[in-house]
């Protein structure tokens, strides 16, 4: 069989790179819209901040699972 | 000690022949037992540094709170003043913000969780300890299990055993056709994904933070080759070493922020889960 391309080292780093794309975009959207909401309605800062951090925590979990998986399943 | 890196074990430096960067890996989280006991002849209990730090955290948090509130005064002074600020922070920013007046019942639980998790995280940057206890997976898992038991119990108590599972599986007010899709997702998310992500979030943040700080600390040491001066290469090494050292300090500050944020998020999510158990969605 002819080998066209070969990668040595830990594939986990590539996996983490891929896993970080989605949450990266998501967290950007969450905080971008959160800041916009605070700018439009500064008196609702408390509620907006709570929900912003909540959404951030849920999106961030995906990237962190991608980070931990190579360590857990061996690289 | 397998894989465990101390700075004195980095024998060769940048610029030496055949000396790759000794990158820290998952090995820096594995500790040799300092003492081990045999319980009932078959279970062996091994005491490692994280265990001792966790006990220390328990003692610190308990002692501080008991000392502050053993004899509470109407007009607080000294330590009571300081600890009350922390208590009020949890009550006003987490419990009341999420659950309203209902939340007052759960402030003791949330306060204990917040300060215990925070103290476990802060151990990462305390000289001498310098290890985040929550980067050992068992500690967040136990905390997440406690949270899971609490919100499951509250849900069954407030909505009835059948009613609670019915409310999870079939949230009211949805078109009939969506239930085959929604029911498995909701069941999976409430029963399994919630506690699992709660534990993984705390664990992975502390794991990543500690690894990051260690990488830059080791590289600051590795790049500083004082014994074997090889001209231009060494100068580059010195520059890199200084940059790494500065980055270490900046990251330590950043980690302080992350530690408090993760403790906050852990408690906030606990409050959200408890709140969703108190009242059915409608």
Give a topology summary.
The complex is a heterodimer of chains A (75) and B (282).
Chain A: H1 12-40, H2 45-73
Helix pairs in contact in A: 1-2
Chain B: E1 35-39, E2 43-47, H1 49-69, H2 78-99, H3 107-122, H4 138-159, H5 161-169, H6 179-223, H7 232-278
Antiparallel strand pairs in B: 1-2
Produce a short descriptive summary:
The complex is a heterodimer of chains A (75) and B (282). With 75 residues, chain A is mostly helical.
Describe the structure.
The complex is a heterodimer of chains A (75) and B (282). Chain A is mainly alpha-helical and 75 residues long. Helices cover 77% and strands 0% of the residues of chain A. Chain A has 2 helices and no strands. Chain A is elongated and about 65 Å long. By secondary structure, chain B is mostly helical. Chain B has a two-stranded antiparallel ribbon with strand order 1-2. Chain B is globular and about 75 Å long. The model of chain B has no long low-confidence stretch (mean pLDDT 87). Chains A and B meet through helix 2 of A and helix 2, helix 6 and helix 7 of B.
Main pleated-sheet profile of chain B: 2 strands, antiparallel
Please work out how many helical segments of chain B DSSP would assign. 7
Structural class of chain B, by secondary structure, is mainly alpha
Provide the gyration radius of chain A in Å.
18 Å
Low-confidence runs of chain A: none
Strand content of chain B: under 5%
Q: Which runs of chain B of at least 5 residues are low in confidence (pLDDT < 50)? A: none
Shape of chain A: elongated
Summarize model confidence as the mean pLDDT of chain A.
Answer: 86
Strand order, sheet with most strands of chain B: 1-2
Q: Assembly type of the shown chains? A: heterodimer
Order of helices and strands of chain B: EEHHHHHHH
> How many whole angstroms does the radius of gyration of chain B measure?
24 Å
Total number of beta strands of chain A: 0
């Amino acid at each position: 069989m002819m080998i066209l391309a070969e990668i040595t080292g830990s594939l986990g780093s590539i996996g983490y790179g891929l896993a970080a794309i989605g949450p990266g975009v998501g967290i950007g959207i969450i905080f971008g819209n959160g800041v916009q909401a605070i700018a439009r309605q500064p008196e609702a800062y408390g509620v907006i901040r709570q929900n912003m951090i909540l959404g951030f925590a849920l999106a961030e979990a995906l990237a962190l699972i991608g980070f931990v998986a190579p360590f857990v399943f061996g690289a | 000690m397998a894989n465990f890196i101390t700075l004195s074990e980095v024998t060769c430096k940048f610029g030496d022949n055949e000396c790759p960067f000794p990158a820290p890996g998952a090995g820096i989280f594995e500790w040799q037992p300092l003492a081990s006991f045999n319980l009932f002849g078959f279970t062996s209990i091994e005491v490692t540094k994280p265990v001792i730090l966790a006990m220390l955290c328990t003692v610190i948090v308990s002692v501080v709170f008991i000392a502050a509130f053993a004899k509470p005064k109407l007009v607080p002074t000294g330590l009571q003043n300081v600890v009350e600020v922390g208590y009020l922070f949890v009550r006003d920013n987490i419990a009341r913000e999420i659950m309203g007046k209902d939340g007052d019942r759960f402030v003791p639980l949330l306060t204990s969780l917040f300060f215990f998790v925070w103290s476990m995280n802060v151990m990462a940057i305390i000289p001498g300890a310098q290890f985040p206890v929550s980067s050992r997976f068992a500690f967040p898992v136990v905390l997440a299990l406690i949270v899971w038991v609490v919100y499951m119990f509250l849900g069954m108590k407030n909505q009835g055993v059948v009613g609670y599972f019915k409310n999870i599986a079939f949230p009211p007010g949805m078109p009939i056709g969506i239930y085959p899709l929604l029911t498995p997702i909701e069941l999976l998310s409430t029963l399994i994904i919630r506690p699992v992500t709660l534990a993984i979030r705390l664990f992975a943040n502390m794991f990543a933070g500690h690894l990051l700080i260690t990488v830059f600390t080791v590289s600051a040491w590795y790049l500083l080759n004082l014994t074997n001066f090889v001209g231009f290469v060494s100068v580059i090494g010195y520059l890199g070493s200084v940059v790494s050292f500065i980055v270490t300090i900046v990251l330590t500050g950043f980690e302080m922020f992350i530690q408090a944020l993760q403790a906050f998020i852990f408690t906030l999510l606990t409050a959200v889960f408890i709140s969703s158990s108190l009242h059915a969605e409608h």
